[in-house]
Amino acid sequence: MSVSGPGPRPPKRPLGARTPTARPRKVAGRTSGADDPVFDDSAEDSAEDVTQEAPEPEARHEHVEWPVEDEQERPPPSRRTTGLLVALVVLLAAVTAGEAFYVYGQDDPVVSAKRPVVTGKVAATSAVDAAARSAVDIVSSSFRTYDEQVDLAASKMTDSFAEEFRQTKAEIREDFIAQKTEVTAEVAAQGVVQASPEQVVALVFLDQSTTKAGTDLNVAQYKILVTVVRTEGGWLVSQMETI
User: Fold this and answer.
1) ∠ Cα 31 37 39 (to 5°)
2) What whole-number distance in Å separates Cα of residue 100 and Cα of residue 105?
3) Are the CB atoms for 154 and 137 separated by under 8 Å?
4) What is the tens place of the pLDDT at every residue in 91-101?
């Protein structure tokens, strides 16, 4: 007699096996509640992180630190430039004041035996040149252009001195023309005797040649003191004296 025992047992499910179920997607903004299934995503997330491509590193820009001078050690350019300009103006003012004191020495310069020249060299030289040129025009004369030369010489003189000069030339005019006289003059040397801003006395050496009727009569050198005064029209002769 056969005895029937219990039937075969069903095979055991392998340990750790689970019924495959669709993994619910996470919805942004939704918080998990008690009814939501809980899954361990650590293994899958780790796998995804391994397989995901790493982002390219961003380009690095190196920042170069340039040496910067201390602003306290060097003043701003505007202040330094202003300082230089102020120093230059002060220097020019000092030079001008020193030159004025050297030239004039006082507010109202006065010519004296100890200080015969109380004006600048340029002004004195200009006045001496004018005196020498005027002396040549005054001394020179020709019977051919007698009246014209008188007018030219008078234009280089002050009114009072021109009046005296015209009177003298009028007295000798007839004889001068009748003898066909010609006088030429040339400056041999010149220099300053006294000089102030308003009046200069020049020493002029003239080589003078005189002819009558085309015949050489006399060649001589004269020393003449020529006084010129400053006017709006320039330096004019106020006096001439032979020494």
Assistant:
1) 95
2) 7
3) no
4) 666 656 555 55
The tally of CA atoms less than 13 A away on the side-chain side of residue 120 is: 8
Q: How far from 40 is each of 23, 36, 43, 44, 208, CA to CA, in Å?
A: 11, 13, 7, 8, 136
- Is the confidence at residue 204, as pLDDT, over 80? yes
CB 224 within 8 A of CB 242: yes
Res 148 pLDDT > 90: yes
Q: In DSSP terms, which residues pair with 211 in a beta bridge? A: 182, 216
**Given this model, what pLDDT does residue 50 score?**
45
Assigned CATH class of 121-242: alpha beta
Report the pLDDT value the prediction gives residue 67, as an integer from 0 to 100.
Answer: 54
Instruction: Return the amino acid letter for 234.
Output: G
**Domain residue spans in the chain?**
121-242
How far apart are alpha carbons 179 and 215 in whole angstroms?
11
pLDDT digits (tens, 9 = 90+) for 99-122: 555 544 455 578 878 888 999 999
User: In this structure, are residues 185 and 139 in contact, taking their beta carbons and an 8 Å threshold?
Assistant: yes
Eight-class DSSP state of 136: H
The answer to whether the pTM exceeds 0.90 is no
Measured CA to CA, the distance from residue 106 to residue 102 in angstroms comes to 9
What is the SS3 assignment for 81? helix
Tell me the two tokens of residue 50. Answer: 């391994």
How far is it, in rounded angstroms, from Cα 214 to Cα 179? 10
Helix, strand or coil, per DSSP, at residue 160:
helix
Distance, in Å, from the CA atom of 69 to the CA atom of 193, rounded to the nearest integer, reads: 63
